[in-house]
Amino acid sequence: MAESPPLPTESLSRYRKAGRAWAAVDDHDEPVGFVVADVIDGAAHIEQVSVHPAHAGQRIGAMLLDHVAAWAARRGLSALTLITFRGVPWNAPYYERLGFRELAPAELTPGLAALWAAGPGAGRDSSPERVCMRRDVPPGSRPGADASP
After folding, report:
1. For a Cys-Cys bond, which of 2, 84, 97, 118 suits 91, CB 3.0-4.6 Å?
2. Rounded to 10 degrees, what is the CA torsion of 118, 120, 123, 126?
3. So what's the architecture of 9-141 in CATH?
4. Where are the domains of the chain?
5. Which distant-in-sequence residues (6+ apart) come within 8 Å of 30 by Cβ?
6. What are residue 36's DSSP bridge partners?
7. What gap in Å lies between CA 96 and CA 87, rounded to an integer?
8. pLDDT tens digit string along 116-143?
9. Residue 147 near residue 140 (C-beta atoms within 8 A)
10. How far apart are alpha carbons 97 and 9 in whole angstroms?
C-alpha cells in the first residue's frame, strides 16, 4: 500500500458521489490531502488517506480521520478500521498515536477478513508486515446510543 499509486480518478469520483470522500484544502483552496472510506461490517473502513508531503506534520491526516469518525458517529457506525503496514513510521505507528489498535486475527469481521485475504501477501497464512487496525467511535457520540457506563 505504501508503494501503491493513488486511487484512479474514476474510483475517487465514485467515492465522492457516494458521499464517502473528503478533502483538506490550503488557504488558497488547493487540495492538500484526502480520505476515502467504505462501510464494512458496521464500521467506516478507511480505504485511503493521503496528505501531500509538503503539508506533512500539520495534523491534516488526523483532522481528516477525525472528520470520518464524526461522519461515522452520525450514521451509527461503531468504529473506523483500516489495513496498513506495521513497520512504516507513517502507517501503523502513526495510527496507534491517533487511537487505533491492532486487531487480533480472531477479531477480524467477515468483511475485513475478505479485504485482508485480497490484499498484499494474499495466499500466505499471515502477513507480518501488514496489520488490521480499529478505532472505536465513542458510543455517546452515536445517535440513539446510551452514553452511560
Report:
1. 84
2. -110
3. 3-Layer(aba) Sandwich (3.40)
4. 9-141
5. none
6. 21, 48
7. 12
8. 888 765 544 455 688 999 999 987 655 5
9. yes
10. 30
